[in-house]
Amino acid sequence: MSELPKVYSINYNLRNAEGAIVDTSSGGEPLTFLEGSGQVVKGIEKALEGRPPGSVLDVTVPPELAYGEHNPDHLQEVPKSLFDGVEDVVPGMKFQTNTGEQTQVIKVVKVQGDKVTVDANHPLAGFTLYFDIELLAVREATEEEVRLGYPISNP
């Protein structure tokens, strides 16, 4: 029988390059995730591998282990008519789209006449991420959790 993946529970702060907190679990529930499920960036999983509960880490995650580099192929010019029902489409607006497999957020970056340029890159694509992580608990996943692709209980 092969080893099952782990379920981790962490508290974290995500900081930008200037040191400002851009996301945190502080004041809320810890983040609990199934290893290998894509629920967190690969750089976090890699940093937690083999660590015992109680570990406190400063983790720097490069773009290739986070959301990838900013990809110019994810910029697309679309007809303004696709935004039917939106009174005034302006740069900075965000919309959810359904690609069939998943929901994706796109950002309007330019409006010119009847054309709108949208960016489907993750907002953190191209950025190095800086995490302060406290590993609260870790356990082996159940077969059901592996089948479902997410944890059904906290460690």
Outline the structure in words.
Its main location: cytoplasm. Its EC number is 5.2.1.8. This is Peptidyl-prolyl cis-trans isomerase. One of its GO terms (molecular function) is peptidyl-prolyl cis-trans isomerase activity. The protein has 155 residues and is mostly beta strands. The protein folds into two domains: 6-67 and 124-148, Chitinase A, domain 3 (Roll); 72-119, Thrombin, subunit H, CATH 2.40.10. The chain contains two helices and nine strands, in the order E-E-E-H-E-E-E-E-E-E-H. The strands form two sheets. Strands 1, 2, 3, 4 and 9 form a five-stranded antiparallel sheet that branches. It has a four-stranded antiparallel sheet with strand order 5-8-7-6, with no helix packed on it. The radius of gyration is 19 Å and the shape is elongated. The protein starts with 5 loop residues before the first strand and ends in a 7-residue tail after the last helix.
Features:
about 160 residues; mainly beta; Chitinase A, domain 3; Thrombin, subunit H; five-stranded antiparallel sheet; four-stranded antiparallel sheet; about 40% strand; elongated
Summarize the structure.
InterPro entries: PPIase_dom_sf, PPIase_FKBP_dom, SlpA/SlyD-like_ins_sf. With about 160 residues, the protein is mostly beta strands. Helices cover about 10% and strands about 40% of the residues.
Q: Low-confidence stretches at least 5 residues in length (pLDDT < 50)?
A: none
- CATH-level-2 architecture of the largest domain: Roll
Instruction: Encode the helix/strand succession as letters.
Output: EEEHEEEEEEH
Query: How many strands appear in the DSSP assignment?
Result: 9
Number of helices: 2
Helix content: under 10%
* The level-1 CATH class of the largest domain: Alpha Beta
Q: What is the multimeric organization of the chains shown?
A: single chain
Hey, roughly how much beta strand do the residues contain? 35-45%
Shape: elongated
The rounded distance between the terminal residues' Cα atoms is 22 Å
Mean pLDDT: 93
Biggest sheet: strands, sense, closure? 5 strands, antiparallel
